[in-house]
Amino acid sequence: MSVLPLAHPNASQSDADALDEGGLPDRDGLPDGARADTLAQLRKRMAVLSGMPDRLSVDRVDEVGDRLPLPDVVADLLPHSNSRQHDARRGGIPRGSVIDCSGARSLVVAMIAAVSRSGGQVGIVGLPWLSLLSVAEMGADLARIAIVPDPGVDPIEIASVLLDGMDLVVLGLRGVDVAPARCRVVSGRVRQQSSALLVVDGHWPGAQVRMEASVLTYRHVPGTSGADLSAARRGHGRIGGLRLQVTATGRDRRRRSADVDLSSLSAQGQAGLVGLTRPEEPVVGRPDDQISADDQMLTAVAN
């Protein structure tokens, strides 16, 4: 994992020295020339972090592929292309597209983990609530994730820079509605760089897909695998999983919806990990002592 620090709005007079030492000055109050230098410096630092200082961007995953991988249960909800690769790539995030995501945060965490686990480079801008433990529990490759924890007053500009070298850029808007004119400019850059932009906690006019996730119910352990919190004894046990309703709406206004479980992946041969899977029928009468440790490990995944 890489953390790309940016200067705070109350930057001191030592900004010039910070540049010489590899830091970045604040963009507020700078003339256009200095601002361009700041962006160029950020690109250089991205290249150094990738281990290729002579290049502007890092290696992309599977350049010939037109979609970034997602968990199957989520990928099936996204609009499918009619290309020859459709059979080999069911759904996924189309390169050059913008996805607007809202609701339960476990969906965003799962998408980040899926892309990085498959070898993709992921840039995350302005998501202070993101737990790296949650991402790791879902199997992410933290070495392929770059985070800008404090993007300053213009996170959209920082995200547009990261599009140069990332397969997926996740942008937290913190409830802001972006002007359509600026959306068109950034969306054009997404297409030009063959990247994908995932917008969270905001509104992005012209997004190809809008996704929403809501929590339907929580699973309680100890108890049967289908036990709901309403049946749990007060002060006893813990949350062992949850069920989401995920909805994807394309530009054709068609809504695709599915129930998704967030639970252990041990049954799929991925011991120690959790992820989004298709719901399973409750196992009635399953004894408490047969619940595996993996069923009780959901300690960090955000709702």
Automatic annotation (TrEMBL):
Residues 278-289 have a biased composition (Basic and acidic residues). It comes from the Bacteria. Residues 1-34, 271-290 are annotated as: Disordered. This is Uncharacterized protein. It comes from Gordonia sputi NBRC 100414.
